[in-house]
User: Fold this.
Amino acid sequence: MSAEQERLVWQAFGMVNSGDVEGIVAMTAPDAEYELVGGFADFEGEPVLRGPEGMRRFYTDWFATFTSTHVEPSAFIETGERLLVIARLEVTAEGSDAPMQMNIGQIYSFKDGWINRVASYYDVQAAVEAAGLTDRDVRNAPGVMPPSAAP
Assistant:
C-alpha cells in the first residue's frame, strides 16, 4: 500500500466522521463504485452505487438517518492491489441518544490516484474471505496509526 493510498483512506474516514458529503463526492472518481454487502445493502435499497451522484445520494441519506457517525480503522491489510480495512463504526440514529457500534470490513481498490471501488461489509469475516485472507492474516496485521500521529 502506498502512502498516497493510505492518505486517501484516512481522508475519506475524516470526511465521513465530519459529515462532509460534498468532500466525499469531490474525492469520488467518475467511474467509482461503492458496493454495500450484507446488512448495509438494506440501507440504500441498491447494492452498488456508482459515481459521485451515487455517493452523494448514499451519504445524504446516511447523515439524515444517523445524527452522528464515527469510523475508526484498526487494521489496514494489503491484498495485492487492494486494501482490506477493519474498522469500528459507531452511529447514533435520528431520535435516539444511544449509539450503536459494530466492526465492519471494507475492501478498497485504487486507480489513477483515486479510491475507485469500495466494498463495505457488515460482516468482517465476509470481508476477510472476500479479500482472500484468513483470520490469521488479520490477527498478524499491524495496528494503524493516523498520519498526524505518525513519528
